[in-house]
Amino acid sequence: MVGFKLTQEQELAKKMFREFAENEIKPLVRDMDEAEALDMALVEKLKRYGMMGIPYSRDYGGAGADVLTYALCMEEISRVDASVGITISVHTSLCCSCISEHASEEQKQAFLRPLVDGTKVGCFGLTEPSAGTDAGGVLSTAVKDGDFYILNGQKVFTTNSGFADTFIIFALTNPALGGTKGLSAFIVDRDTPGLTVSKDIPRMGIRAASNCEVAMIDVKVPADRLIGKEGLGYKIAMGALAGGRIGIGAQSVGIAQGAIDEALAYVKERKQFGKAIAKFQNTQFKLAEMQTKVDAARLMVWRAAAAKDNHENYAPLAAMCKLFASGVCNEVARDAVQLFGGYGYSREYPVEKMLRDAKITEIYEGTSEAMKMIVGGAMMR
């Protein structure tokens, strides 16, 4: 039986996420965007409120909630600021999931626990200058040397890397097999000699998020930091990204809903031709179209989250929800700016930032074109 009503626990969590976003994040958004940096005191509050371990078991210090509750968090936080949303997403969906789903029990106790209990923050190093959508094009290497691996290479657009404590790094242990078969995953501490992090890469949107280049020169990693076995890296990365797309779908819904909320408040106050522009049928029709699309995207996100919670084949549903929701996000943010007119293009109102933030949802954790390939491939099978 299909249901669209949240449980009491999910409703309470959603309320808490919204109140946190309104009270703790919203006052900081403009300053963080201008400074192009997160307020680190805010990051500490995210940890304290348990937002860095929502879908992970209490056995490891997590909140013990489901994936749908995590999606609700992503929507409510991103409704106010997408930079904070992606900070939570990369830590939770990408870094933590690699350890949770593939690491040994000893590794989970040592590395997952501090990530989900709020002690540490994680990041995910897959993308390279020559390997974006083509994750099999990774060139970084990990050469076995006794009880260690020696890592060399470069990662780029590594979200959270500016302040992360724990890095999941993907590197070739068997270059002859290439990235899809010779790739392996490692847990690397920030303070490991030879690992250096650049300043943030200047970006169009999500400017407050940390997004840097990570260089590795003879980084010596203990062999027991290998996740799973050699050659499983591509599978581990693709699994993490599949789950991550649910979070990005939810983020897309959040950005779009935030833009609608701002536009709705504005059109009720803004007067033209002697009356509030909310009175014009054209305005009402546009808002109705925007909200209908966002609600449809939200239901697709919930469907994918429920499938993951039920241990079903959720990857095509996650790709579908990200494809649709990110497209809706960009369209709705653009329409919101249009409803504001010239003021929407100014930095006096938040919709211009929402439009800048919206674009990346069609790119990171798999481009829209890649999502079509995943969905189409699933259909052919």
Your description of this structure?
With 381 residues, the chain is of the alpha+beta class. It has twelve helices and ten strands. It has helices at 8-25, 29-35, 40-48, 67-80, 82-102, 105-116, 233-269, 281-309, 315-340, 342-345, 351-358, 368-380, and strands at residues 122-125, 141-145, 148-159, 166-172, 183-189, 195-197, 211-222, 226-227, 271-272, 275-276. A four-stranded mixed sheet has the order 1-4-5-8. A four-stranded antiparallel sheet has the order 2-3-7-6, covered by helices on one side. A two-stranded antiparallel ribbon has the order 9-10. α4 packs antiparallel against α5. The two termini are 26 Å apart. The model has no long low-confidence stretch (mean pLDDT 97).
List its salient traits:
about 375 residues, alpha+beta, 4-stranded antiparallel β-sheet, about 15% strand
